[in-house]
Amino acid sequence: MYRGNAELLGLFSIDETAWGNVDAEAKEELEMAASEDSEEAIDHGILVANLGLRLSEELGFDNNFCSEIAKAGIVHDIGKLQISSLLYGRKEGVLRIEEIKYVRRHPTLGYNYLKEKNIGTEDFRNIILHHHENYDGSGYPDNIKGDLIPVGSRILRICDVYAALVSERPYRAAFDKNASMELMIDEVKNFDMNFFLAFMRIVHADSFKDIDDYIKRCNSKVHVKSKRKL
Q: The pTM is what?
């Protein structure tokens, strides 16, 4: 399992009608950012890094590119460092549209942080900036679509979604592998189809067992923490 520079990974009342119009992914992003502690954030980064490494290898990219994808997976949510103080101070159950807008700034905040610290190349930073863009142009921050989205961002988009679905959260149970893939197929418009088909191959390969085991270990830790809070 690739672990990389895990220490670089950061964290990460409304009108009912307005909240009802917010899409499920936006609600998930807000709850994830508000509830995730530093250990869970590091675990998530390591998982995305390993998924990205496997997928880029499956797609036939060279070792240097695969290594860059793994590093990008580790730090893809580093922009959440700058929103944690807002979210951790919120009252439980109080959700604001403004908070969702702020959470969705994290790719830009991450890009700016890496640029300020002179970390990575511009191509590397652009992977972080665009890892929430959707292939059909419905993502953020720039609503770019198709091949205009950097290759690395298209890889991380798939891996980030899968990692979120299979992970136990304080506010919901993890989805199993098959349910997660079904949910992703329902939203396949968000993904580069060729990359997604390759991802399906690696997820169901025998060599994926070490990642399955890592996911189980991470989810077990969340179970233990939840029991302690009861």
A: 0.82
